[in-house]
Amino acid sequence: MMKNFRLTVLAGCVGLLFFGYGSVLAQKQSLGLFDGHGDIGDVLKPGSAQYDPKTHQYELSGSGYNIWFDHDEFQFMWKRMKGDFILYTRAGLIGQGVDPHRKVGWMVRSTLDGKSPHINAAVHGDGLTSLQFRRTAGANTEEARSTLTHADVIQLERRGGKFTMSVAKFGEPFVTQQVTDLDLGDEVYVGLFIGSHNKDVIERGVFRDVRISVPARENFVPYREYIGSNLETMDVATGQRTILYYSPESLQAPNWTPDNRSLIYNSKGLMYRFDLKKKTPTVINTDFANNNNNDHVLSFDGKMLGLSHHVKEEGNKSIVYTVPVKGGKPKRITPTGHSYLHGWSPDRKSLIYTGQRNGEFDIYKIGADGGTEIQLTTAKGLDDGSEYSPDGQYIYFNSSRSGTMQVWRMKADGSDQQQITNDEYNNWFPHVSPDGKQMVILSFNKDVPPDDHPFYKQVYLRLISIDNGNPIRTTPRVIAYIYGGQGTINTPSWSPDSRLLAFISNSAPLMQTSGTGQ
User: pLDDT category, 13, cuts 50, 70, 90?
Assistant: First the structure.
């Protein structure tokens, strides 16, 4: 190791010789996602790093003169990685501090030497938020300052030689800054850091909701190739996120059962029940319906499950079926396809869905036992994502009729259609909380076409407050910054008490990963 790097590595042959496999594994898990930590450069006061497996938070302490000029001194918690990645956290400094330029953030380094080429996304004690980088060993550090100050959401993404810093004050959209031509080598050290900007002082920082994601490769084929999935929940009031389960397969669209015991999602055409206590999934028997997509929904009482199953004998068109939530033989509901199910009325009497008829996608209503379908929307453009309010008076949906995808509302009979959102984002899948006080939506950036909701994009979950049954028409507040999109939150996924949301984020498997932290 470099002589000026005080290193704690919790893996390797030495550990196996002295501690045995079980002890090493336990120690590795104590660092969560990371492989090791230590002081970079000739620091005067040694720093430290720790991971709390109960809260999934990381705390770093460190000193050092600075991360600047031709060399660096700071505390670094790191992981070795290759290829592209997305690094995300909510971070902050602890206490008043001494120097206004103390800083925390993400860093990517070629080596652990104090003069190594690197790039970091940093938030300083005085609020300065910037992308700082050294192109070659021992060169002076360069800086690209963000227009945003006092960020507490920090993301750093690598795509080849392009690095993008995305920062925000929690609740607001990202502000970005880029360096497009920085070569740090394929295999690098990525991690969290803290520097005190004063060699005689130790400062502390805390990092929550730490995520390291491996994105889909640039030329992947949509709907033929997939990457892995995190099944997550989030406390809506605090934004605190928890990963319940990871799969290398594509998991999509979790429903939260009214008994608060399970989440139901689809994967590879099958339906799964995820036990919230045991943290394990089991297949739901849906008989011949084994080609289900992510447009599935539970009845309000949780006794029935509606499916959208692709029927091969009918040109692989999506058809709506219902089945008891415990499994059984599905009953066909819609006469033709495509029909994509999204909502079940609170009285269990009606289903609403997006139907493709005569080249148009509109919202239709049908009896829960089948019958004649009723067309509720007729405007040109895609109408999708329909869902009843908990009191059954309204249907919320998303429509591209205005030129961008926005959230709309109509009465249960299809009358009085009104636009709810009107901003630069393409907004999908409005889901009203069981208590009727809030609505969450999935927002794509404007670089995504209005009528598309693709996999593997940077998306937001945003929250709209509802007062006396009416959405408050202010700017929706961001409650989650996610690498996801299609399958993230296509279906209703509020917990019964309206406190939590379930959703899917995406990442290919982390190679050379250390521990099982989140």
Answer: very low
d(CA 458, CA 185): 25
The per-residue pLDDT for range 28-45, each reduced to its tens digit, is 458 999 999 999 999 999
Q: Which amino acid is at 450?
A: P
Q: Assess contact for 119 and 163: CB atoms under 8 A.
A: yes
Q: Which tokens is 192 given?
A: 């969290």
Percentage of residues in the chain having pLDDT higher than 90: 92
If you search the block for the tokens 């930590």, which residue do you land on?
37
Phi-psi region of 72 (alpha: psi -120 to 50; beta: other; left: phi over 0): beta
Banded model confidence at residue 27, pLDDT cuts 50, 70, 90 = very low
pLDDT interval class at 511 (50, 70, 90): low
Residue 456 corresponds to which tokens in the numbers above?
């593997």
The CA distances from residue 106 to 79, 184, 213, in Å, are: 12, 15, 14
Q: Which two tokens stand for residue 269?
A: 């055409």
CA dist 252 → 87, 257, 270, 295 (Å): 22, 15, 11, 9
Q: And the tokens for 197?
A: 């900007």
The pair of structure tokens assigned to 93 is 């400094």
Return the H-helix or E-strand segment holding 133. strand 129-134
What's the sign of the alpha-carbon dihedral 313, 314, 315, 317? negative
What's the sign of the alpha-carbon dihedral 411, 413, 415, 421?
A: positive
CB proximity list for 21: less than 8 A, separation 6 or greater: none
- What pLDDT score does 20 carry? 29
Question: What is the per-residue DSSP string for 430-452?
Answer: EEE-TTSSEEEEEEE-TTS-TT-
Q: Does 89 have pLDDT greater than 90?
A: yes
Q: In order of start, what are the domains of the chain with their CATH numbers?
A: 30-213 (2.60.120.200), 242-506 (2.120.10.30)
Instruction: Quote the tokens at residue 395.
Output: 């249907």
**H helices within 356-398, ranges in order?**
none
The whole-angstrom separation of Cα 205 and Cα 443 is 31
Q: Do the beta carbons of residue 258 and residue 302 sit within 8 Å? A: yes
Which residues touch 95 (CB under 8 Å, ≥6 apart)? 203, 204
Q: What is the DSSP string of 35-92?
A: SEEEEES--SS--EEEEETTTTEEEEEE--S-EETTEE-EEEEEEEEES-EEEEEEEE
